[in-house]
Structure formats: structure tokens, C-alpha cells
Amino acid sequence: MENSKKVAIQGAKVLTTTGWVEDATVVIESGKFVNIDRSDPSQSYNPEETKLVNAQGLLMLPGIIDLHGDTYERIVSPRPGITFPLSIALVENDRSLLAAGITTSFCSITDSFEPGVRSRDTGRAVIDFILGEGKQILRCQHFIHIRHEEANIKGHEELCEWLKSGKVQLLSINDHLPPPDNEPKMLRYLKGFRRRVSMSESEIFDFIHQIQEQRHSGEPQVEELVAIAHSRNIPLASHDDHTEARVALSRKRRVAIAEFPANVDLAAKSRDYGALVLMGAPNLIRGGSHLGWMSVAEAIENDVVDCLCSDYHYPSLFYAPFQIEYLGLMSFTQAWNLVSSHPAAAIGMDNCKGRIAPNLDADFILVSPHPRPFLNSIVSVYIAGQESVHYS
Q: For residue 292, what pLDDT is reported?
């Protein structure tokens, strides 16, 4: 189907900016929504000009926008020290995104001091593929989210150039390196490190000790990255703010998105200075934070969350709005905003994505109203008005 050909989605129950429209016809032209109205059985379309899609009995929902997803790491490197060719891994990752109804993905690349899947070399290769060969192969719309580790001081000029050249659409500042005197955090970090990197115990401790000695030398570099991001209108995110001092620093840096604040009070303080709060959908589906921090349910009950992301599990982002409605925390229409229109606004794309409305990108999913909504019931995924995947 040519992108310039009109498409008419007929008979669906459509989630619009003003609520549900039953038995609607949605017309798409040149990859954009043209109009949304109740179906008119008497209206006819020229089949040479318009492709008709029978969506009777299906829900039509705005495509999911995922601002923070690093599941691709487990596809590139499923075991410590084991990696697969990026072209294979990222194509499979792309299919996983579509299967979860994600039409816009911010590939969350950790720019770390670690070797392996979180190294600069891997990050560079992922970016080169997505912005190069991937443009012809990948179906989901991919953008780059760099998660820069403060203690990573190597290759600073290259990272600055990525920001200046427009390769990066979201920058978050991370500090996952455990302080030497914090045993619980050290044990938690080591558990994750061992899943990603193949090293002996002595090599791991020597490596971490070496990085700990340089952790503060990266602070001036971080401030330069923050300044470049603001000068290029790249949204800035904080990560895991767990103290008032960290929130104050994020405020000073004019952070736009506060990722995973530790508790209700800190989330509220982040919102007070204008940041939108982003939390992980797996937190909701699993019933709480794997770190013992604020749950998504608690955040919703206290009105301190704006967006959800897949974090480390793509399917959770599709399931989350159904679970939110089931728990009585929000209506489904409000909950779907957490994965569509709100992320679009947070990243500055609300003028083109996140809603089914005229003149916006025709990114959407058709869903069967399954009696058990916690089972994936996606029928089709459309991007820019074209069907990217169909499930019978």
C-alpha cells in the first residue's frame, strides 16, 4: 500500500481526544489522520483511491510511545559475555516492540563505563544501525535515548558530537555506580553487572574500585552535556532521584522528565519545578518496584505520575492501562494517556504523535476486546497509516 493512498478504517470503537467514538470511520491520507466520524453506511469510497479496512468490533487506540526501553540489551547479550550480531538482535527487538503495540520507541542506550552491552562501542554500533541500515529494515519508529553514566569519562567529545549532530533525542543522567560504603547498593549492582559482563570476582572488584576513584572527575563533563542538551532543545531526564539533594540538582539542571523517583514526596517535588514523572510499567504489572521504592499504583493514587515506559519489559506497557482500569485507579481512557499522549508531550512531540486526531501521524493499534484483557489481543499495528504487522 502506498503511503499517499487514502485509508478508511471503518467500524472501530475509536479512542479520541474527547473520548470513545463508537462505530467510527477514520480517514487517513499521506500518513496523517484526516478526520474521525461516525460511520456513514451510505458513504462510498473509490477503491482505486482509498483502501478500506473493516475494523468492526475492534478498539482503535493511539500507538504506544515508549520513552525508556532497554530490553534490547537482553536480545543483544542474553548471557554474560555472549553477544549476537546487532542486525539480527535489533530486527528481533523491533518485532518485539510491534508485538507490544509500541509504534514509537526511544532506544535507551546506556553510555557506561562497563565493557560489553553497555559500552560506548556497543552504543555507537546501535546508533549507527538504527540511523543507517535500520531505516530500511526496522518498522517501528526509532529514536535515540542516551543514558549517560556520570562516572563514564572516556570519549566525552564523541558524546558531545552526538548531541550536537542531532543523533540523540533524549538525554538522561544516570549514576548507577555504588558508593564504596553502601553494601546493599553494591550487592545489587554486582548482581546486575554479573548478568551483563563475564569477569572473575577479583577482576570485577578491581574494575569497580578503579571506576569509583574517578567518579567525581566526570561532573564537569555532565554539566557540559546538560548545557549542550538545552542549547539543542534535547529534553533532559534525571534517573532514580532518591534524595532531596538529587531532586534539587535536577531542578538546577532544568530536568524535563524525572525517571523513577524513589517516593511520593520526591515525585511531588519533581513536579513542583515542572518535571513530568516517568515510571516503569513492569512495576505495575509485577505489583511493585523491584527496588522497594514507590509503586506505580501508589503514584497514581497520589497523582504524582505522568507517563509510563516499558523500562526492561516491552509487553508490560500494553498491559498497564488494562491493569490500571481493573484496579480502579483510573478510567481506561485516562490510563491510555500515560502510554500515548503524555509521553508525546513529555518529549515535545504532542504536535504530531500520541493521539488520534486530525493532522497527527496515523500511528495506532487495532485491538480485539478480549474477555481476558491481560492477554495480548493486538490485531494490527499501523505506523504512518500503513499496517506494519497483522495478527490473525
A: 83
